[in-house]
Amino acid sequence: MPRWDAMTDEPRPLPRVRVTASTAGRVSRPATRGFALPGHLADEADEVFSRGLVRAQLRLALGCVAAFLVVAAALAGVIAALPSLGDPPLFSVPLSWLLHAYGFYPVILVFALIYARAAARNERRYRQLAAPDEEPV
After folding, report:
1. Measuring CA to CA, which residue among 101, 95, 66, 67 is closest to residue 81?
2. Whole-model pTM?
3. How far apart are CA 18 and CA 33, in angstroms?
4. How far apart are CA 130 and CA 137, in angstroms?
């Protein structure tokens, strides 16, 4: 909001201010209650816990992708087998067409929900390890 000049009754711009912060030599860490380790040990523990979380999330992602590919391949196999079974029409549209158009979306949604819940569980476990005295959320 500009200041007003009393003499001319016109707005006058505020002076420019440069804000800087020197971060050389400083590393900010989240505050932990009741979990006091010396600086170098706390850094090592944070690093170990972080690497464990990253590995757990990677394992989870790879597992979800592999399971999704298996289920998607099975669904594609069912769709490929439908024409040989006569491809029954549903609302005058062949079932294989409907499965191609809409069949994969529920599968994607289910795997997305499974992944999101498992990732949140991994992060809750990480927070409990990193700060054991805090209440779980």
Report:
1. 95
2. 0.58
3. 35
4. 14
Q: Looking at this protein, which amino acid is placed at residue 104? A: F
CA 130 – CA 35 distance, rounded (Å): 8
| Residue whose tokens read 């001319």 | 8
Contacts of 39-48 with CB under 8 Å at 24 or more apart are 45/130, 46/130
What are the residues whose beta carbons fall under 8 Å from the beta carbon of 4, sequence distance 6 or more?
10, 11, 12
11-12/3-4 β-pairing: antiparallel
Find the angle CA(110)-CA(116)-CA(118) to the nearest 5 degrees: 100
| Torsion, Cα of 104, 109, 110, 112 (10° steps) | 120
Of these ranges, 23-27, 77-81, 128-132, the one predicted with the greatest mean pLDDT is: 77-81
Helices 104-130 & 95-102 angle (0-180, nearest 10): 30
**Rounded-to-integer distance, Cα 76 and Cα 104, Å:** 9
For 22-55, the pLDDT digits (tens) are: 666 655 555 555 455 555 656 777 788 888 889 9
- The token duo for 45 is 């523990």
